[in-house]
Amino acid sequence: MKDKNTIIGIVLLAVLFFVFFWYTNKEQSAYMANQKHIQDSLHIDSLAKITPQQKAAMQLDSLRADSLSKISKAGNFNNNIITPEQTVVVENNLMKVVFSSKGGRVKSVELKNYDSRTGGKVVLGKTGKDGVTYNINTGNNKSATTADLNFTASQTKKNADGSQTIQFTLQDSSHAGIVHQYIIKPDSYLISWNILINGTNQLLTNNTINFHFISQPVQVEESVDYERRMSDVCFSEGNEFDYISAHTDHTFQKPTQWISAVQQFFNTTVIAKNNFNGGAVHWTRSTDSSNIIGLVDATMQMQVPATASVNIPMQLYYGPNDYKILSNAAPDMDKIVNLGRDMYSFVRPINKFIIMPVFNFFASFISVLGWAIALLTIFIRLITSPLVYKSYKSGARMKLLRPELDELRKKFGKDQQGFAMEQMKLFREAGANPLGGCLPLLLQIPIFFALYSFFNSSIALRGQHFLWSHDLSTYDVIVQFHTKLWIIGDHISLFSLLAVGTSFLISIYNMNMTPQDPNNPALKYMPYIYPIFMLLIFNSLPAALTWYYTVSNLITLGIQFTIQNYILDHEKILAQMHERRKAPKVKAKSKWQEQYEKMLENQKKVQAMKQQSQKNKK
């Protein structure tokens, strides 16, 4: 009784402490919110009292201070600060590249063949923060970033091979300077970027160039939340592909070949032909209501030869996550297309050598990709049909054994251990496998994960209309909510409803085919619970995947009905089972069977001892 009172006292104290800290925290939060409100009100009031003339003067003072700071940092290149920015546009048949004289860099790239879901064409690097810059020494104890220095642009030159060249030059009075040479080839998303530095020991410290790569991807797909989830940072370090998604920071310990800011279907990549020596990257995924996907902030170091002049070959990629195109861009860049990573890396060979080639074959002569997915589904079901047929045959045996199992249940009553042992014996004699019906489900698991990766990363599906879906690469919408609901989101997908409905029919069919244990009534509700979980998961998945699942389920229902009613001879199977039971083959038990039967025997003994103990007490 004393211990009981002690426990009650401890619990009451814990409750009191919890209430106290909760109330104190609530009061503190309210106080801080009130103080912030007061400060904000004072700030707004003070701003309201400022006249337009005063605001203009303050802005001008701020601009002057910023300009003076930049001029001071520019040192020997201070004439390149006050020169106005000039933009130059260079196009090929795939993209329109806007160059800026400020930094002699790529300002933005418009992809001509891809429409943004937010309007217009897909434009990469358009936020003003994007680009690749680096610091140079501009005088004694002075340095500046190239982004603040205005280069002089040359005329665009057309070369004999159809490529175009443009140069941006930065030079001081001693003829030390930099040339950024860009070469754009026809039918290519790659931009060759050659950095020619004259006066290396003067402009660089310790012959090291520190690149600063910033990319702030902007929404171009239907759902900004889903696009954020599918975005990450990829890179090749030590000639091995890697990426960060859940983590936010990575330090490069080995020579790095390239680094990429990856959206769901597009990427911006910096390629170092002579490798970066090291560096670090920080990846932040946005969580607000803006259209910003995230921010990639990388600093990469490169050691250059200790010569008066150096040429640093680089490349920039602004384009789609197309497997074939990326395969020809740089080693391992094709792995940006997520065909299976980490714990799902086992599905990559399935995608690479089966799913993708078969799908591309069907897509080569079928313009409507929804029907190509249907043919892909039929192909997958055909190659798995021999194994599935065996499982259906096992299911037919299980159905024929139902009367005998019912008799065993009546015989053993509440003796579950005894019933389980006799049930196993019956299955073994009849050649029935109670787990045989699980085979189709097990086969679906690696195929589902393979197709999940493939349909989420296949840019060929982007913008493809099919039936009521306007884009197979994202979910279709039949009902749109005005707010986001927990887990399910802000919509209902019709393809998801069809996939869930057909799965429900399969569950009901299989439940009628398989003997049920009346002592476990929870199994009766599984066909109703499972579809609810499926809807929560499937509702935001690409329409291509839910359409595949719907077609696969319809094929399953058709195969099950056909095999059970027209192919399997139930009387023949029953006769074979009786013959097998009369003269059962001598077959060694598996270790699993031996262990399972041993466990059942031990449970039976324990149960018997408990019952005997209860009788002795009475």
Describe the structure.
The chain is α+β, with helices and mostly antiparallel strands. The protein has 16 helices and 22 strands. The chain has helices at residues 2-49, 52-74, 79-82, 200-203, 224-229, 323-327, 348-363, 369-400, 402-412, 416-430, 439-457, 494-513, 526-538, 543-567, 570-582, 591-617; strands spanning 87-91, 95-100, 105-115, 121-124, 131-139, 142-145, 152-153, 157-158, 164-171, 177-184, 190-198, 208-215, 232-237, 240-244, 249-252, 256-262, 266-276, 278-285, 294-303, 309-320, 479-485, 489-492. The strands form four sheets. Strands 7, 8, 9, 10, 11, 13, 14, 16, 17 and 20 form a ten-stranded antiparallel beta sheet that branches. It has a six-stranded antiparallel beta sheet with strand order 6-5-12-19-18-15. The chain has a four-stranded antiparallel beta sheet with strand order 1-2-3-4, with no helix packed on it. It starts with a helix and ends with a helix. The model is unreliable at 1-7 and 61-66 (pLDDT under 50).
Give the rounded overall mean pLDDT: 79
Largest sheet: 10 strands, antiparallel
Percent helix range: 40-55%
Structural class: alpha+beta
Amino-to-carboxy terminus distance: 29 Å
Shape: elongated
Radius of gyration: 34 Å
Number of helices: 16
Kindly identify the CATH topology of the domain at 73-337. Answer: Beta-galactosidase, Chain A, domain 5
Level-2 CATH architecture of the domain at 73-337:
Distorted Sandwich
Extract low-pLDDT stretches. 1-7, 61-66
Q: What is the total tally of β strands?
A: 22
CATH top level assignment of the domain at 73-337: Mainly Beta
- β-strand percent reads 15-25%
